[in-house]
């Protein structure tokens, strides 16, 4: 039975539908933790009108599988789901969903945050923003590297 | 050594190129050697891949260091630090 799901898609997703499907027929589950990332209308002092997400097909899936595998090595998880959107997006749009099921909340909270921190620094996605000053590639954030580095101390 | 190069995001735009098959000379043994070899082609390579710029590299779709050895027939991708999520 498949327990880890990775989807790269242009289409939007519905949180309720995804969560229901993830723990359907699985009465072992006592905790479902989800994270949804959305597009902000402001970045580095500029108004963001929209963005386009590019990725590296093939490597994206491989890197997300590796991220999930590492999460499983650290915590007892039942199922994991990562949905990442690509293509054109507007402010308020959902970009990413990470969902994790486990017996208890501690494992699920930690794994969800770990997967998200790891994704931010290792999965090959790039954002190009349309701002009032023109379009620009988003710079990687030092704070994302710092968030990832926390997990290496464990 | 035959290699399939791929470029993404700002690098792809700066080079005006997404993909290129090359045969690298024998002295190109590592990722860093390959980057240096491409820089020697002159602009836009020299500008886009300039040594001061932070560029990530993947060998056969796995993130690697500058010191990693190339392998025959590999897919080598260059791209800026990732910004997904």
What does this structure look like?
The complex is a heterodimer of chains A (154) and B (85). With 154 residues, chain A is an alpha+beta fold. Chain A contains four helices and nine strands; from the N terminus they run βαβββαβββαββα. Chain A has helices at residues 15-23, 59-74, 105-122, 142-152, and strands spanning 4-9, 31-38, 42-43, 46-55, 79-85, 87-89, 94-102, 125-131, 134-137. In chain A, the strands form two sheets. In chain A, strands 3, 4, 6, 8 and 9 form a five-stranded antiparallel β-sheet that branches. In chain A, helix 2 packs antiparallel against helix 3 and helix 3 (105-122) packs across helix 4. Chain B has 85 residues and is of the alpha+beta class. Chain B has three helices and five strands; from the N terminus they run βαβααβββ. Chain B has a five-stranded mixed β-sheet. The longest helix of chain B is centred in the middle third of the chain and has 9 residues, at 31-39. The termini of chain B are far apart. The model of chain B has no long low-confidence stretch (mean pLDDT 97).
Give a summary of the structure in a few sentences:
The complex is a heterodimer of chains A (about 150) and B (about 80). Chain A has about 150 residues and is an alpha+beta fold.
